[in-house]
Amino acid sequence: MTPMTAMQRGPHNAITDVAGVRVGHATLVRGEGPLRPGQGPVRTGVTVILPPGDLREIYDTKFPAAAHVINGFGKALGLAQVAELGRLETPILLTSTLSIWRAADALLDHILAAHPDIGIRAPTVNVVAGECNDGWLNDIRGRHVGPREVAEALAAAAGGPVAEGSVGAGTGMVCYGFKGGIGTASRVWPSPLPGAGEEPITLGCLVLANFGRRRDLTIAGVPVGRLLATADEPAHEPARAPTTGGEAAPATATGGAAAPATTATPPGGPERPALGAPGTPRGATAIPTGEGGSVVVVLATDAPLTSRQLARIARRAAAGLARTGTVYWHGSGDFVLAFSTARRYPPYLPDEGAYLNPFFEAAAAATEEAVIRALVAARPMTGRDGHHVPTLPVDRVRRLLEERGILWDYGPEPAAPPTRT
Questions:
Q1: Which CATH superfamily is domain 15-402 in?
Q2: Which of the residues 166, 186, 191, 332 is marked catalytic?
Q3: What is the residue-level pLDDT of the chain in tens, covering all 421 positions?
Q4: Which family does this protein fall into (predicted)?
Q5: pTM of the predicted model, to two decimals?
Q6: Catalytic: which of 216, 302, 334, 385?
Q7: Residue 83, exposed/middle/buried by CB under 10 A (0-12, 13-18, 19+)?
């Protein structure tokens, strides 16, 4: 059982617990020291989520889907047609803000190669992509995600356990002032549908977490951000817009700068130096930048649902995000996409509420846990201009929860994923 809900987790506690759903990452980490726009340092990547089937089959199947915009400060692609037609016909791509068009075009190349009829004897295709701003750590203007990285992510796409944290699109992301990125979770419960037998319903969630102020972080109802606020730790909250320039000192062997690393003034407010937490590279900086950030939530289920029902479920992801402490600031781009892999229409339900309520609960709970798992899985990272983001102090947070009688049940940190330099 989970600490948040009486529902069961799936076998991998991942979006891939929905049969046929696959996830692939390509991760780019190279360079250190001062920002050189177009060159580096690079802390970015791409993640793809594939419904069942190959690229041609995904286009031909057109899975029931829905999109929900919580706060629309973002550059997501393809959501308008999903909302209008209620169907998904491509993999879902996640990446860095300024790489979204280049990456989506690369995905389109793969889809067109797989389906020669598109645009001739078949309609054009609606590529779906989401983004978050990784410009605090990454040379975002360099748009380093392109055809090679998209091909790598597609080739790596698989079911089973999903790498989380600082991997793929999550490589350069920051969440609640700590290193964020990719997180995933799932919920399973008995199906109430007639004739379902022993087949359960599965709902999986994957998040790209790049949002929140540290003092707002809440885990299992405990205001851990405020409880940690007195500690001697650096704080950083991501901004939607990239920071302005600034000259950094030469980098040390650890990737930090040898002197205060930047004179940049982020959009949300003036900088302040790092507070010298243990493990923070010497001279690295961490700067609070106000109320910005972004998150993309992808929900998948194997249950038969209409696009209207999926839209109702997608809206409940906002409840899960809110449980972690966010209030969706002006500069936050918060998007949800939900789809079903079922290849049949849902039956007539005299009591639709009894059928849908567990989905609402599962969507909120899995989204909440996926955000926490992104924080737990991520590794500390130093990026451009010596900008450093620490990880969530899991041992201390665990103690804070257990002191209040709450079981820590968010798993150990997974093995670090491979990166390509």
A1: L-amino peptidase D-ALA esterase/amidase (3.60.70.12)
A2: 332
A3: 444 445 899 999 999 999 999 999 999 999 999 999 999 999 999 999 999 999 999 999 999 999 999 999 999 999 999 999 999 999 999 999 999 999 999 999 999 999 999 999 999 999 999 999 999 999 999 999 999 999 999 999 999 999 999 999 999 999 999 999 999 999 999 988 766 556 899 999 999 999 999 999 999 999 999 999 865 445 555 544 443 333 333 333 323 333 333 333 333 333 333 333 334 444 444 444 446 789 999 999 999 999 999 999 999 999 999 999 999 988 889 999 999 999 777 667 767 888 899 999 999 999 999 999 999 999 999 999 999 999 999 999 999 999 999 999 887 644 444 455 5
A4: Belongs to the peptidase S58 family.
A5: 0.86
A6: 334
A7: middle
Query: DSSP string covering 221-250, please?
Result: TB-HHHHHTTSS----B--SSPP---PPPP
Q: Is 294 a catalytic residue?
A: yes
Per domain, the residue ranges of the chain are: 15-402
